[in-house]
Amino acid sequence: MRDPLSVLTDAFTSFLFGKVETTRLPVRTSTGQAQAVYLPTAAPGLGDSGVIIGREVYSGKGYIYDPFQLYGQQLPAPHWLVLGESGNGKSALEKTYVLRQLRFKDRQVVVLDAQGEDGVGEWNLIAQELGITPIRLDPMAALDMGIRLNPLDPAITTTGQLALLRTIIEVAMGHGLDERSGFALKVAHAYVNETIVDRQPVLTDIVEQLRHPEPESAEAMNVAIDDVRAWGLDVALVLDRLVDGDLRGMFDGPTTVGIDLDAPLIVFDLSHIDRNSIAMPILMAIVGVWLEHTWIRPDRKKRIFLVEEAWHIINSPFVAQLFQRLLKFGRRLGLSFVAVVHHLSDVVDGAAAKEAAAILKMASTRTIYAQKADEARATGRVLGLPRWAVEIIPTLTPGIAVWDVNGNVQVVKHLVTETERPLVFTDRAMTESSAELEDDALRAAEREAEERAAAFVEHHLGDSESTVA
């Protein structure tokens, strides 16, 4: 037992100079042995300005992401690719991200909603909550004075109109236009724009001019009028499908009056269109170009263009070329393009591999939900993911994803608030009791994922040695 004088002396010394620590020699050990004391640290986050997504799994820190805040500093481009199989949380992430972005006054979002149930799109409930009427493109409804988008709308430049007409025809035909067919289309388009001034030109005018070209167009090229008519015949037949075929009603008249392009959220409901038909890429091309010329403006607003089933865009060379130009142009005006696809193989092995690679290169943010092991390896090769991320992708549970933000790779658990939950999880067939069971299962899966993640870190950090003081 220490004498009272020593205790008093130590107390007085500590009061004057602070507590004196003993000096210890460094101990050489491995991280596997010392990790209980010197815990591994997670990579730094993306800052504290923007939209909160959830929390980083390894550290528990909040994970905040905003392409507009990061652009030019940590991000070379504001575009975003979301990958993953169905049922893993892609839809919930998209919806909460949009709802949270709309809290900022200078944000505006367009969604191409290609999925739905009960006759409405998946985003219908969110649109209703915000007091917005979706723009429902439906061939049957269009015949009864439904929504129309005119590819020849005067709001689109003549160059844009001609590019759009070529794309529609090339997508439908499955190959590019030859020089003669392209000339016939160009002549017909120019004549229609020059002669129709008292109303919006429409596709019917182009079809009629292709069938009955003017003699002047033949004389200008020193060819017979019958040759010009023959060159434009296939083009006329393709466009006739939009005028009098299975796609009639949506594009063969003036643009519907009253479409509010100033609303904070604009939803194009494509759920009535067969997702596997040629109509979907044609529709996306028309909507994309129409938006490029009527929606994107130099007004300092930050715009988000979210496309579900985006493989319809990236997998078609002609549509991909249009969107590639849109992404390059829109980046200067504050546009963030969000492409949602199930598998990367849907696009990189398709007919538009070159165009797909260019669009993927512009997507500096990649979010990857659970995939099978072989698909994860293929995704990792294409996107250049680190090996540890590739290995963990097949083990991810719903709501947890690998985020790669220009090389900053983290595992993030997406969080949904109680206010957002009824808007995000819209399965109408699910009862209240089954919803509770699903929540319990989700929480159990999250705990399991976190335990696996911790074990994964322990295993991979236990291989090296370090000097610990």
The SS-based structural class is: alpha/beta
pLDDT < 50 runs, ≥5 residues: 428-438, 460-469
Largest sheet: 11 strands, mixed
Q: Roughly how many Å is the radius of gyration?
A: 29 Å
Distance between the ends = 32 Å
Helical content class: 40-55%
Instruction: Please work out how many helical segments DSSP would assign.
Output: 20
Could you tell me the strand content as a percent range? 15-25%
Strand order of the largest sheet: 3-2-14-13-12-4-11-10-5-9-8
- CATH superfamily of the largest domain, by name, is P-loop containing nucleotide triphosphate hydrolases
Q: Can you tell me the number of structural domains?
A: 3
Average pLDDT reading = 81
Global outline: elongated
CATH topology of the largest domain: Rossmann fold
Number of distinct beta strands: 15
The CATH architecture of the largest domain can be named as 3-Layer(aba) Sandwich
In words, what does this structure look like?
This protein has 469 residues and is an alpha/beta fold. It folds into three domains: 4-31, no CATH class; 40-145 and 261-429, Rossmann fold (3-Layer(aba) Sandwich), CATH 3.40.50.300; 148-255, Helicase, Ruva Protein, domain 3 (Orthogonal Bundle). It has 20 helices and 15 strands. The protein has helices at residues 4-17, 31-34, 67-70, 90-101, 124-129, 139-142, 158-173, 179-195, 203-211, 215-221, 225-244, 279-294, 311-314, 317-331, 345-348, 353-362, 373-383, 387-392, 421-424, 432-461, and strands spanning 27-30, 51-56, 62-65, 79-83, 107-113, 116-117, 120-121, 135-136, 265-269, 302-307, 335-341, 363-368, 400-405, 408-414, 465-468. An eleven-stranded mixed sheet has the order 3-2-14-13-12-4-11-10-5-9-8. The protein has a two-stranded antiparallel ribbon with strand order 1-15. A hairpin with a 5-residue loop joins strand 2 (51-56) and strand 3 (62-65). Helix 8 (179-195) crosses helix 9 (203-211) and helix 14 (317-331) packs parallel to helix 16. The model is unreliable at 428-438 and 460-469 (pLDDT under 50).
